[in-house]
Amino acid sequence: MLFLSPPHFNNNRFGGSLAKRWLDVRMHDMYVRRAQRDMYRSRAAYKLLQLDDRFSIFRKNQRVVDLGCYSGGWSQVALKRTRVGESDSVVIGVDKVRMDALQLHTFVQGDITEPSTIDAVKRALGENKKAHVLLSDMAPNVTGRRADDHLEITELNMKTLDVMESILGVKGWLVMKTFFGPETQKLRTFLESRFYKVRASRPHATRPESREVVRGTLIVAVVDSSNGGRERPCRFI
């Protein structure tokens, strides 16, 4: 089941909304300051840190692929939490926009819809090796037209799932951002056809005005040798 937890808003007409808005702005400023202090490239790093604290996504000796990795905040978290340099972990970032290099990070520049890009990711993973974690913080350039923005990110979600089918291994993790809207039910239906269980989580570090929900899940229908070679949905958290 897909558990959708829409953003909570205080509907108190007598000052509650203003107080919450003030608090949300202060929280936003706090994460910006923390990112500068902790040398993360974006405040988005704290969303992934909070998801990992909740779901224990990362561990040593993992292969991680970060789609839409620019400017590098999520890749920085993956590098730290998988202990790259102290283990056999590998973190591969993919983006159409080149970013400043991160130490011990592999960067692939390209469009994830292009076969050449996916081939480059597979080479970086290693021969016959799959990713343990697939991250996607990809989002469209927000226009402010919520219906259009929702459709755009839903399309990105489907592209992410296409990539997932080719590079993510058995019992791997998928963490993917989406926006709530009319197509959410269709996305849910698709996910439920592929996943045994899907959880949705909205980390505290999410921008207060955002409609996004970040999914932390375990992976999809793949050939599982422990199941007699039959395809089955693995368990998701």
Q: What would you note in describing this structure?
A:
Residues 1-15 and 213-237 have low confidence and may be disordered. The chain is an alpha/beta fold and 237 residues long. Strands 1-7-8-6-5-2-3-4 form an 8-stranded mixed beta sheet, sandwiched between helices. The chain has a two-stranded antiparallel sheet with strand order 9-10. It has 6 helices and 10 strands; from the N terminus they run βααβαββαβαβαββββ. It has a single domain (2-9, 42-232), classed as Vaccinia Virus protein VP39 (Rossmann fold), CATH 3.40.50.150.
Secondary structure layout plus pairing:
Layout lengths: L1 E2 L12 H23 L6 H11 L7 E5 L5 H9 L8 E6 L10 E4 L5 H11 L5 E6 L9 H22 E12 L4 H11 L3 E4 L10 E7 L3 E2 L7 E2 L5
Parallel strand pairs: 1-7, 2-3, 2-5, 3-4, 5-6
Antiparallel strand pairs: 6-8, 7-8, 9-10
Helix pairs in contact: 2-3
Main attributes?
237 residues, alpha/beta, Rossmann fold, 8-stranded mixed β-sheet, two-stranded antiparallel ribbon, 37% helix, 21% strand, disordered C terminus, rRNA-MeTfrase_E, S-adenosyl-L-methionine
